[in-house]
From TrEMBL:
Pfam families: Polysacc_synt_3 (PF13440). Keywords: Cell membrane, Membrane, Transmembrane, Transmembrane helix. InterPro entries: Poly_Biosynth_Transport (IPR050833). The keyword Membrane applies. It comes from Psychroflexus lacisalsi. NCBIfam families: PRK10459.1. The chain crosses the membrane at residues 20-41, 47-71, 83-102, 114-135, 147-168, 174-195, 291-308, 328-350, 381-402, 414-436, 448-469. This is Lipopolysaccharide biosynthesis protein. It is a multi-pass membrane protein. It is found in: Cell membrane. Belongs to the polysaccharide synthase family.
Length: 487
């Protein structure tokens, strides 16, 4: 029986430290990324993105979903942990060798000889990460998010400073490659040293089998989901070239910063947290609805700011070399808003042990994305972004239908949970584009002044709409996360 008081305390602590991790380490990452974009041309980012399409796919298999299985299982024995550890190390070594073998194939596919050397270098990420993968999963299972925060912050800051120095020294794409390798090395060493778990030389096939049964659909889902989310990069790199891939990939990264950081904070904490109360369906459903609404309440206005301020942001910070990013950011902002609503869906599938269903829906998602991205990439980046937006609208409705069945709640309940936030978002965008946008264009303020005005406009209208039409205090929305945990 889970102690409710301890469960609440651990979950709140986990959210607190994960928020710090995301705000500080990811904030530093974003800041350093912007500085790197002002130094390194889009083509260099595109070259890295071409390799990352393949290395990222192999990363799906780096622990074969065994880390999630370790977290999900309520009671875990030492021999299980040891077996999972050495299985993960073996996978890391295998993936390193596999990417080395694929290096000439990647270079030939994109007709970019430099990709051979980049692929060889990035291949060592797998073996580096494998030595501490289990330690990090155990930290999550035990809700030790303070440790994760400390490790990530140190790795991000040191690797980022090194990358910045190399970029200023003219290393180009190699500054980005070394940044990734340095971060992986520092994280791996730190997790291994600071973790209480030290592996013993033990491996048992029978012990591993139940974990494989849990993780196999998860890995299949992850591999399919990966291509559904990266087919755009794959086809853009092939048909539109490294420079446009660099512009698109960085646009996507900027869009995902608030989405991934805000929803990612809660998702990473709530999976182990909800796993502890997986048998209490009412509590799981209540937390799911409240946290989804809280994520949308914060994420949607940030995406509105991004859409309305994209032009001024790019002109002020990045310059003319990145001007083609502006319409892409404006479209992807709405993609990010919709994706934030689906953040916790994956957790529900895992907590309820329905990885089989998650696998099937991801197959469908992948087919929609791959087909759409293939045809849209034959034209231009705007076509790709628009297809991405349309696909997300369709897939969100389908995913809600499945969540409805798993949690045994009505589809109308899911819709009512966020309907006002959706309407508010469209109102803010509409007035901002046709009203505020026209006024700012006429007044000809500086980019910085325009961004400040957009920031205040979105904030005031967003909060004002809730106060006027919802007829309830903002405190209710700001405390949703805390209330859900208490529940």
């Amino acid at each position: 029986m889970v102690d409710k008081g301890k469960h609440k305390k651990d979950t709140i602590s986990g959210i607190k430290w994960t928020v710090l991790d995301q705000v500080i380490s990811q904030g530093v990452t974003f800041g350093l990324g912007i500085l790197l974009m002002s130094i390194i041309v889009p083509r260099e980012f595109g070259l890295l993105g071409m390799v990352t399409v393949f290395s990222g796919f192999l990363s799906v298999f780096k622990d074969f979903g065994l880390g999630s299985s370790l977290i999900q299982k309520k009671e875990i024995e030492k021999k299980e942990i040891d077996t999972i550890y050495w299985t993960t190390v073996g996978l890391g070594l295998f993936l390193t060798i596999l990417l080395i073998v694929l290096s000439p194939v990647i270079a030939k596919y994109y007709d970019e000889p430099l990709l051979f050397e980049i692929s060889l270098s990035l291949s060592f990420l797998f073996i580096l990460q494998s030595f501490s993968s289990v330690q990090m999963s155990l930290a999550k299972k035990k809700m030790k998010f303070k440790l994760i925060f400390q490790v990530h912050t140190i790795a991000v800051v040191i690797s980022g400073v090194i990358a910045l120095f190399l970029a200023y020294s003219g290393f180009g794409v190699w500054a980005l490659v070394i940044q990734q390798i340095t971060a992986a090395f520092l994280s791996s060493v730190a997790f291994y040293i600071l973790s209480n778990y030290k592996p013993k030389l033990f491996w048992d096939k029978k012990t591993l089998k139940p974990h494989i049964n849990f993780s196999l659909p998860l890995v299949g889902m992850g591999s399919i989901n990966y291509w559904s989310r990266n087919a755009d990069n794959f086809f853009i790199g092939k048909f539109l070239g490294a420079e446009l891939l660099g512009i698109y990939s960085r646009s996507y990264s900027i869009m995902m910063l608030p989405v991934g950081r805000i929803s990612g904070v809660l998702s990473s904490v709530l999976f182990p947290s909800l796993s502890l109360i997986q048998d209490d369906s009412q509590r799981v459903t209540s937390i799911f609805l409240k946290i989804t609404r809280a994520i949308a309440f914060v994420t949607f206005p940030l995406m509105a700011m991004l859409a309305l301020g994209a032009k001024d942001f790019v002109n002020l910070i990045l310059g003319d070399e990145w001007s083609e990013m502006i319409p892409i950011l404006q479209i992807l902002a709405s993609v990010g808003a919709l994706q934030s609503l689906a953040t916790l869906n994956g957790n529900i599938f895992l907590v309820k042990n329905r990885t089989d269903l998650a696998f099937k829906i991801n197959m469908f998602n992948s087919a929609v994305y791959v087909i759409g991205f293939y045809f849209s990439s034959q034209y231009n980046l705007i076509s790709v972004a628009l297809i991405y937006l349309i696909s997300n609208v369709l897939l969100m409705l389908i995913n809600w239908y499945l969540v409805e069945n798993i949690l045994q709640i009505k589809f109308l309940t899911l819709t009512k949970n966020v309907w006002f936030i959706l309407v508010n978002y469209m109102v803010v965008l509409g007035i901002g584009h046709y009203g505020i946008g026209s006024i700012l264009k006429y007044l000809e303020f500086t980019n910085l002044i325009n961004l400040i005005i957009i920031l205040f406009y979105v904030t005031l209208l967003w909060l004002g709409m809730f106060i006027i039409f919802k007829k309830s205090s903002l405190e209710e929305y700001l405390k949703l996360i805390k209330e859900a945990v208490k529940k």
